[in-house]
Amino acid sequence: MALRLVERGVRVVQIYFGNGQPWDNHEDIEIHRKLAEQADRPIAALLKDLKSRGLFNETLVICGSEFGRTPVVETGRGSRIQNGRDHDPFGFTVWLAGGGVKGGMTYGATDDFGFKTAENLVHVHDLHATILHLLGLDHEKLTYRYSGRDFRLTDVSGRVIKEILV
After folding, report:
1. Torsion (CA) 100, 122, 37, 3 in degrees, nearest 10
2. Could you give the CA distance from residue 39 to residue 37 in angstroms, rounded to a whole number?
3. Band of pLDDT at residue 163, cut at 50, 70 and 90
4. CA–CA separation, 41 vs 76, rounded Å?
5. C-alpha angle with apex 120: 163 to 55, nearest 5 degrees?
6. Above 70 in pLDDT, residue 145?
7. What value does the CA radius of gyration of the chain take, rounded to a whole number of Å?
8. Residue 150 forms beta bridges with which residues?
């Protein structure tokens, strides 16, 4: 369905995947393996189909979530140990494909334990600035006035991550 929408000129398509299973699962990290296996083939098929129709280079595909996961187990209520992981805002993955992004590269890394960024920190404002740039918008000019002050999605910071662009 996403491919058909793109073929017909729809500018933004959001795909939500979960099939009733919560990605935000704190009890058992293994559910993520099952969900990733279910999502892998459809995502690969979408990318392949976009390429075969000549739409890949003009279509930005973003795959992300709200947070990463810590590398240690999470304690539940009553100090019950479970196989879950808590949210980790200091080390998580978002991948981009097509639409002006270099393929086959990794930008950034966490420390040896996966707790926090150790190389090429990307703030959410940098990610937003880069996405807006790829959509042809200057994040520094995209402002709105509220309560007597100009605001923008990237606040007063944010830089386009030129190292990942074609």
Report:
1. -30
2. 6
3. very high
4. 33
5. 40
6. yes
7. 18
8. 145
Q: Which of 33, 100, 22 is closest to 61 using CA atoms? A: 100
Tokens 């404002």, located at residue: 125
Question: How high is the pLDDT of residue 138?
Answer: 95
Phi-psi region of 32 (alpha: psi -120 to 50; beta: other; left: phi over 0): alpha
Residue 158, pLDDT above cutoff 90? yes
Task: Concatenate the DSSP letters of all residues of the chain into one string.
Answer: -HHHHHHTT-S-------TT--SS-SSBTHHHHHHHHHHHHHHHHHHHHHHHTT-GGG-EEEE--S-EE-SSPPB-GGG-B-B---EETTS---EEEETTBPSS----EE-TTSSSEEES---HHHHHHHHHHHTT--TTT-EEEETTEEEETTTT-----GGGB-
Structure tokens at 74: 């999470």
**Structure tokens belonging to residue 13:** 């398509």
